[in-house]
Amino acid sequence: MAGLTGHPVLEIGDKFEELQNNIINNNKNKEVIDKARLVVKGEENSNNNNNNQGGERDMAPPTSNSLHRSGSRPQLDLSKAAIQGNSEERDPTILLPNQSDDISHFALDIGGSLIKLVYFSRHEGQSIDDKRKKTVKEISNGSRRSYPILGGRLHFVKFETSKLNECLDFISSKQLHNGRIDSHYWNSEATNKENAVIKATGGGAYKFADLFKERLGVSIDKEDEMDCLVAGANFLLKAIRHEAFTHMEGHKEFVQIDHNDLFPYLLVNVGSGVSMIKVDGDGKFQRVSGTNVGGGTYWGLGRLLTKCNSFDELLELSQRGDNRTIDMLVGDIYGGMDYSKIGLSASTIASSFGKAISDKKELEDHRPEDISLSLLRMISYNIGQISYLNALRFGLKRIFFGGFFIRGHAYTMDTISFAVHFWSQGQAQAMFLRHEGFLGALGAFMSYEKLGLDDLMVHQLVERFPMGAPYTGGKIHGPPLGNLNEKISWMEKFVLKGTEITAPVPMAPPGTTGLGGFEVPSSKGGTLRSDASALNVGVLHLVPTLEVFPLLANPKMYEPNTIDLSDHCELEYWFTVLSEHLPDLVDKAVASEGGTGDAKRRGDAFARAFSAHLARLMEEPAAYGKLGLANLLELREECLREFQFLDAYRSIKQRENEVSLAVLPDLLMELDRMDEVW
Ligand SMILES: Nc1ncnc2c1ncn2[C@@H]1O[C@H](COP(=O)(O)OP(=O)(O)OP(=O)(O)O)[C@@H](O)[C@H]1O
Ligand SMILES: CC(C)(CO)[C@@H](O)C(=O)NCCC(=O)O
């Protein structure tokens, strides 16, 4: 890996004030000030009057509008990216030598029902004092420029649009609108909100523009919703390994997309309303249809009919429902018989809600559970059917479904898949996306001129799940836990609650009777699991320098996970191995941190977090996407890192090193004494 040898390592800001003064005195423009803040380490001269050290530099008062506030948007330039220093390091610093500007930090999709937010953060621990925080110098045309080192994560968060204030508070609390989360140490002017512009799409980008200006002092740069949906979908399908999956009769299967054979496809975004878009390439698409019977209809009508207080409650109700009490089946009409001549079984729904009339029952005579299921089935099936008809119109074989109505919900996906399969007689395929509801927000995020994200390859994005993931089923994302202590107390709190905490369970596959007849979905647990923002979607780590082994015949299709845990025997075996080994690993981790009381507390919290992940995955192996042994081991490492165990085997290594060093002189002498034999 190219290590940029020969380029001196620079540090930020040491000569900022001095340069700034010079520049201001020289009446240069504000852009120069921004660039001048990145100064060569070791070249600080004695005239440097800047007393600021380390983090204090961040507090430098805003003096001008930063580059990323200007009309020309920032870029994340991944060209010539390389690892800085020792490439053997576990978490080596990534250099983006051609990265000059700050990058954008967040983008929004403000829909009729939900607000989706995607934001970027630098790798944890790269604080102002971090040794890894460096810049590189490049001399071109005789002028010196320095560049910050990037590498970071994409986070996904959602809020209800009716609770816009929660979203504004979140943005405020993380200072996203000030760009502070990442850029502050090389761009303190970011606190100047004047001219700050954020990208947003969805109707709310128009509707709430004034509110954003009022509350956060930022202007909204509106991006077209369809453009964003398509850009987001294309990015996910190309850059994320196993983003798409099929879901038939309770069985989930991840699909590896061939980049050269992606287009054309039909994208169906099931939000409050439904958009159907024929996608022919990057930026090449046509909205070919839509329907106003969508997620908003299910939630709106369902709320009126069942008095549910939340979408999740309504969805949960459906799990205990029996639609046969309310739907009119073919068998109800044909005296229990199939109408096989036209391919309809007795259990096929002939008319959704049809029995509500013939039984002459009032609303209160029906169980809310049955109403919810019937409604869910009606809407999902209808969407599947219309989608297929549009695919047929344009000869498309693949249909990708996104939007938060899907919500990773087994019954919804099975119903849509069934409709597509049934009407196309198996010729078309319904596929779902793990980042289902975030297409638009991702598209808006990527619309900051050129971020370089679209150039990322599958192996350069690694998805990780935070320690809280197994616990947060069904909840809309709240403010994240800030520091280590908060994380530990959070884990302790859950243990205190004891039996109330159960690992999330999947919804059992619905029974099907073929030919369109659906039986009651059976449910293992009373609670709806797998919330899309908290569980199915992790944090995407951008590792732009990762390269696959160059001699691979087909790097794009290379699968690093040689042990596939979708095989149940493998799964059980490895889960047992990892669970049994856990106490020993905790002991080693605690010892690696000196065995202090604090280390023990962190060790306990780690064990709890990792056990919760294991329990979650044992019940739903695909909860975090396709699962291989390598993912599981990486998950364990990530958990250790979350509780600040950098190397659980450190003390063992130390001991072994000491012992080795003690015998080294003797060994060398012995080698010296040996005759050279060639
Ligand atoms: N917690 C939730 N609260 C409300 N609706 C939810 C929730 N979770 C899932 N949904 C479903 O997701 C739908 C909204 O999906 P999505 O966020 O993709 O669309 P939107 O952008 O709000 O709508 P549109 O694109 O039509 O403006 C809702 O109509 C509802 O069916
Ligand atoms: C109006 C939008 C695009 C807003 O996201 C969406 O809700 C939608 O596609 N509704 C369906 C409208 C129709 O085509 O009938």
TrEMBL record:
Enzyme class: transferase
GO cellular component: cytosol; nucleus
Keywords from the named record: ATP-binding, Coenzyme A biosynthesis, Hydrolase, Kinase, Manganese, Metal-binding, Nickel, Nucleotide-binding, Transferase
Pathway involvement of the protein, from the record: Cofactor biosynthesis; coenzyme A biosynthesis; CoA from (R)-pantothenate: step 1/5
EC nos: 2.7.1.33
Stretch list, region Disordered: 42-76
Catalysed reaction equations from the record: (R)-4'-phosphopantetheine sulfonate + H2O = (R)-pantetheine sulfonate + phosphate; (R)-4'-phosphopantothenate + H2O = (R)-pantothenate + phosphate; (R)-pantothenate + ATP = (R)-4'-phosphopantothenate + ADP + H(+); (R)-4'-phosphopantetheine + H2O = (R)-pantetheine + phosphate
Cofactor(s) the protein needs: Mn(2+); Ni(2+)
Example GO molecular function: ATP binding
Alphabetical list of SUPFAM superfamilies matching this protein: Actin-like ATPase domain, AF1104-like
InterPro entries for the chain: ARMT-1-like_metal-bd_sf (IPR036075), At2g17340_3_helix_bundle (IPR035073), ATPase_NBD (IPR043129), Type_II_PanK (IPR004567)
Bias-annotated ranges (Low complexity): 45-54
UniProt xrefs under Pfam families: Fumble (PF03630)
Keyword Electron transport (UniProt): no
Keyword Magnesium: no
Function: Catalyzes the phosphorylation of pantothenate the first step in CoA biosynthesis. May play a role in the physiological regulation of the intracellular CoA concentration. Functionally redudant with PANK1. The phosphatase activity shows preference for normal or oxidatively damaged intermediates of 4'-phosphopantetheine, which provides strong indirect evidence that the phosphatase activity pre-empts damage in the CoA pathway. Hydrolyzing excess 4'-phosphopantetheine could constitute a directed overflow mechanism to prevent its oxidation to the S-sulfonate, sulfonate, or other forms.
PANTHER family cross-referenced by the UniProt entry: 4'-PHOSPHOPANTETHEINE PHOSPHATASE, PANTOTHENATE KINASE
Annotated family: In the C-terminal section; belongs to the damage-control phosphatase family. Phosphopantetheine phosphatase II subfamily. In the N-terminal section; belongs to the type II pantothenate kinase family.
Protein name (Swiss-Prot/TrEMBL): Pantothenate kinase 2
Lineage: Eukaryota, Viridiplantae, Streptophyta, Embryophyta, Tracheophyta
